[in-house]
Amino acid sequence: MAVAAGVPGAWLRFALRALQAWDRARLRRLERAHPGLRIHPSASTNLAVARFDLEPGAVLEIGADVVAERLPGEICFQVASGARVEVGAGTWLRCEVEKIRLVAYPGAVLTIGRDCWFNGCQLSAKERVDVGEGAMIGPGTRVYDSEHAVDDQTPEKSAPVSIGEFVWVASDVTVTCGSEIGAHSVIGARALVTGCIEPHSLAYGIPAKTRGTIGTRRAFM
To answer: CATH fold of 2-213, please?
Structure first.
């Protein structure tokens, strides 16, 4: 009975190893097809089921030990020609609640520091978006470094966005172009960030305003 009981477990381990081997092979094929795609060998093989929309001349670098769920198409990397996206080592891309979309338009730069935690959010760069080490961004949050034209007198505008180290941006927050969130800050749910939030701030509201202070935070990964 002991031997028989161990057989299903052995088959499961074999199946998982075979699946990982298939995933690694797919990732290597993607790298060969897109010269600007570099995925660290220790990154999650679940990335094999992510969506990669990479134009010629695009650069996407995924660092060591990046973690992802195995949900086909729920993580999307959209990188235009001349754009660059970097995902730092140890970052967790959680997509079981909502999709994650990382978008960089022609010539733009999107950088994500190490040990970040993204959960069902969207980041879009037409110029530059930088996220510091250990930052957390919750589901439904959108980060944009550009705004659409409103009329003939108000053209589209872009300005870099910076989210500092160990910042926590909660769910359903909108961060607009030119915003800067200082390190160790917390942005409350459904806030609208339109400017500069000083480090160690607790901010929320529409528009977000500083309403308290936050001590030193750390990565929760």
So the answer is: UDP N-Acetylglucosamine Acyltransferase; domain 1 (2.160.10)
